[in-house]
Amino acid sequence: MATAVKPSVSAPDSPSLSLWQRIRDLWRNYTIRTLLQGLLTIFAVTTFTFFLVRQMPGDPVQIKIDQLMNTQNLTFEQARSIATGIFLYDPDATALEQYFTYMTQLLQGNLGQSIVSAGTPVSSQILRYLPWTLFSVGLALTVSFTLGILIGLAMGYWRGSWFDNLMTVFASTVSGIPDYIIALLFILILGVQFKLFNVGEFRGGVDHTITVAFSLEYIASLLKYAFFPVLIYVLSTIGTWILAMKSSTISTLGEDYITVAQARGLSETRILTAYIGRNAMLPLVTRLAISIGFVVGGSIIIEEIFQYPGLGRALLRAINGRDYTTMQGIFLVITSTVVFSNIFADLALGFLDPRVRLGKEGKNS
Amino acid sequence: MIGLSTVASTEGLIIGILCGLVPLLAGIYYRQWQAGIGGFIACVMSGFACGFLGGIPMILLTYAVLISKVYVNRQDPFTSLASLDEVNFEETQNELFMRRMANLGNTIRSGTSALIRNKAGFLGFLGIMFFVIVTVFGPLFIEYEGTARLDRRQPGARSLLAPPSYEHPLGLDWQGRDVLSHMVHGGQKLIVTSILAGLFATVIAVVVGSLAALLGGIVDQIFSAIANFILTVPTFRLLLVLATIVKFDSNLALALLFGVLNWPTLMRAIRAQVLSLRERDYVEVAFALDLGLWHVITREVLPNMISYIAVNFIFTIRVAMYSIVGLVFLGLVPLQEPDWGVMIFLGRQQGVLFNPTASGMLLSPIVAIALFQLSLVMFTRSLEEVFNPRLRSGL
């Protein structure tokens, strides 16, 4: 992408900086370049998904026409006139025309209207499902990161102990099995065979008989319904955190400053937290920031299994109903989060680790 | 895919025995009983499983192992007892062939011993072999039940579902069909598709990654931009959309598509590796000696990356299996029985999930997929030892 910047053609003695030079100076700035590249990527992904979803067989109008003809015994023309009336979608407009309309709307911050559920803006749909995914996956990420860091640190520090061996087996087992397989195993073995819990009770997001309020009862219900999705997310991700933290801890243990700290007679707790823990966490923080990008997407299959009302299920429904605008909206939200969390990870590492920060400045100046 | 999905057959057994005669006779000739008989068994098994495709490569491998046990390099001044003046350094075609075979055999032997030495890795290898053997040889003994078996209805029962019994060790499914027969017949396609998908992704990543690093400039920038683009798109979600556009009735198409979507991570790692390897002294020496690009790639650069590539290949197989079963689970690909994923889908659709007597139908594919994935994870430990000469001790 750096090829977009051509060498300056203006005369060197021109009093004011030429436009090209200004652009080139901007491009040299690491932060601005990363941001611009991110915006370009989002634009490319949006364009790509826009044309891709229109390649899906059967547009929303077509599906509705089929439905109406089958269920209400209408002729094709009748069904068509009804269907085009219901949906905010003109099947005769070319894809390019639709694209320009969509992009103009998007630049004004408008994600458009849902095609299938007419009258609902896509943004309000996303806002309806996003909190559930953010809550469940975010909680799971926090729990699994914190636990993983602590367990990995202990394993690396007391390497070769029974705890280390046990946890290595545990971590490689749970990280090896796909999340939905763990979920189904939970339901089948603990729920159905041993009847430790009632599976049907845990479907949905929250008990709807409880009024929405910041009450203990409501929060308890939220936590109860999120328990299984969160547990599955934690189990399927904690293994990677544990193993990464363990190897990071082991490599930190060999550093000179640890030996110095021990020689100074610092307490074991202080060495473990302030010297080993902090430095070993550094590479994991970048990965955490990248994982935050995937919080928004959630897991479609897990949400489908537990009937959790998150963004993944919303996307699945949009795909099945050929709701183009909703699909585009969800893809846009997911992509932007991934892009910006990657940028954030990049900048966060520079902020946390002075070596990286200095290296970058040296390279780009 | 003809040739890639395979079922053991009688013709295969004959081919296997014929192929096995080569190492067996060679073993008798060289008085290497153990290697000869071992080679015979290996050839019979692989010929039985895959016909000529399995038998002929196995002849090469077992013969190489055999040769490596008896071969003495007479040109090598360290093993030769003759004085240096008497050694003839001219090599005939035949001697060259024997030396190459012995080298290959030594590599295989040290690789195998590295494979066995790591306990966890070997366990993973055995796990993978178990599934391969069951899905390849199982169909010989267990007949596939594709149609509903209403005659198996028990008096007073509400459905045809049945818990495990002596005749049907894994129980009956919702149409009264034997679950074991579906397990045996339905795994191979999934495993082969996942491996193919992993293979495509790895090949694309290796080719594109090394091209980008070696050519640099505009090629590098274009490929890196594409890689960044694909990394940003949520892959599984994209696969969901694509599944409605492309009809995934051939597993080759699914594997290819998966490969196209999953090469960027490995490609970026390989690009970085090649870039750093290019600066190493031994690579510069090889260039300076005018050994040619092909030699540099195969002898200097690839051996340093092969361990990483192999581990990543296994990882991609796992992700591919995850995605393929996930697509079936959500009902977005045409259902083709028998298949483990389809078993899970239909089991859920038929309400088997909440029926404690009928868990066999759902538990079997779930446990099989979990075990296969675990075996793959454990197998990577061995792969690291096999391909990394620093971890592998010589014979």
Q: Count the strands of chain A?
A: 0
**How big a fraction of the residues of chain B is strand?**
under 5%
Query: How many E-type strands of chain B?
Result: 0
The rounded distance between the terminal residues' Cα atoms of chain B is 39 Å
User: For the report, how would you describe the main beta sheet of chain A?
Assistant: none
What's the CATH topology label of the domain at 178-393 in chain B?
MetI-like fold
Query: Biggest interface and its residues per chain?
Result: A-B, 47 and 41 residues
Order of helices and strands of chain A: HHHHHHHHHHHHHHH
SS strand fraction of chain A: under 5%
Structural class per helix/strand content of chain A? mainly alpha
Could you give the order of the helices and strands of chain B? HHHHHHHHHHHHHHH
The backbone outline of chain B, from C-alpha atoms, is flat
Q: Total helix count of chain A?
A: 15
Q: What is the distance, rounded to the nearest whole angstrom, between the alpha carbons of the first and last residues of chain A?
A: 19 Å
Q: What are the low-pLDDT stretches of chain A, counting only 5+ consecutive residues below 50?
A: 1-13
The major β-sheet of chain B equals: none
Q: What is the name of the CATH architecture of the domain at 178-393 in chain B?
A: Orthogonal Bundle
- What is the typical, i.e. mean, pLDDT of chain B? 81
In percent, how helical is the residue content of chain B? over 70%
If you compute it from the alpha carbons, what radius of gyration of chain B comes out, rounded to the nearest whole angstrom? 25 Å
- The dominant shape of chain A is flat
Structure description:
The complex is a heterodimer of chains A (365) and B (395). The longest helix of chain A has 38 residues, at 216-253. Chain A contains 15 helices and no strands. Chain A is an all-alpha fold and 365 residues long. Chain B has 395 residues and is mainly alpha-helical. Chain B has a domain at 178-393: MetI-like fold (Orthogonal Bundle), CATH 1.10.3720.10. Chain B has helices spanning 10-30, 33-50, 52-70, 93-117, 119-141, 179-186, 188-215, 217-232, 235-245, 251-261, 264-278, 281-288, 293-329, 340-349, 359-387. Chain B is flat and about 95 Å long. The two termini of chain B are 39 Å apart. The A-B interface holds A 1-3, 37, 41-42, 44-45, 48-49, 52-53, 55-57, 172-173, 175-178, 180-181, 184-185, 187-189, 192-193, 195, 199-200, 297, 300-301, 304, 315-316, 319, 327, 331, 334-335, 338-339, 342 and B 218, 221, 225, 228-229, 232-234, 236-238, 240-242, 244-245, 318, 321-322, 325-326, 329-330, 332, 344, 353-356, 359, 362-363, 366-367, 369-370, 373-374, 376-378.
